[in-house]
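Worked example 2:
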Amino acid sequence: MEKTIKCPSCGAEIRMDEAEYNQILSQVRNQEFAEAVAQREKELHTQMEAQIRADKVESAAKVKELELQLQTLKQTQKAELNSAIAEKNVELADLKKQANDAVVKEHQKVAQEIADLKAEVANLKLEAQKDANAAEKRLAEQKESFEKQIQMKEEQVQQYKDYKAKLGTKLLGEDLEQHCLNSYEMNVRPYLPNAEFGKDNDCAEGSKGDFIFRETEEGTEVTSIMFEMKNEADESKTKHKNADFFKKLDEDRKKKNCEFAVLVSMLEKDSELYNSGIVLAPGYEKMYVIRPQFFLSILAVLRQTGRNTIDCKKQLEKIQQQNVDVTNFETKMFEFANLFGKHCKNALKQREEAIKQLDNIITACNNAKEALRLEGVHYDNAEKNIQEKFTIRALTVGNPTMLKKFEDARTTAGSSPVE
């Protein structure tokens, strides 16, 4: 299909096919669109520049306005801040004054407390010095006493060593039990009248020791010791050790209620342990092993131990006696309470019986009272009847004969007629 284009200048017409026509038309349209777009861009650019200038002017005005407002706000805030600072300074001055007053008071209080503490410390130092002096004095006395005891013990040890050297060979042929008994009789018995030392002959429980020592004071046991003597000469075939007899001796001590157990032994004669003196039996409490020459020493040591605890024992016995007294008192009080309760129950029974009898008496009295009241009512009724009905008029009503006689009698006597 052909298209015709007319030239605007010369008026000539040009024929072309549809494709060429569309191409030319497209070029014309593109050029017009480009020109329109350029024109629009120019207009928009002009409008935008005008708008930007207007915005700049408006922004400058707003900036000036904001700067003015900011300046005003700064001046206001500065004035408020100065006022607040002034108030805070006044408050701070008051607080400083209060703090200074408080510090002065606290300083005075602390100074007073320090003075009191110094005085207390001085008193404590004085008391401590007194206590220290007393303690030093006691320590010096104890030291002197201990030194004397140590000297005595050393002398005894030296004597025992000398005695051992003299006695060692003799004891092999001498009975050890007799030796200990003789030592006790000669050196102990005259000075301990309240003590007993003798053979243990009680086999009731199947076993016994050799000797038992007991000492009492005012009925309180000071100490008690179970002794067992073992002489090396007694064991000719089998050589025993001291430890072989510990268990039996401990059982015998407990069975016979002894506080201590002592093995007087010549066994293991070459043992440095047992030759050193008084030895605590390994593994057993309150059991000692000694050589014969320490027999008197162990008695003295254990007696002193017992005497140190006798006050405790007496106090314990006193407490036990007090407990017994309290128990007896409670028993008697309970018996009294039971007996008193029985008497109270009997008294209550008698009281209830008496109350019943009184209730019966009260009932009888009330009945008698009611009967007397009724009797009075009857008397009142009788008196009323007499006053109302026991008259001439009442008696002669309906009886003309008696009325005629009473009138005649009154007329004769000069009285008034019967009313």
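The radius of gyration is 70 Å. Residues 211 and 242 are 17 Å apart (CA to CA).
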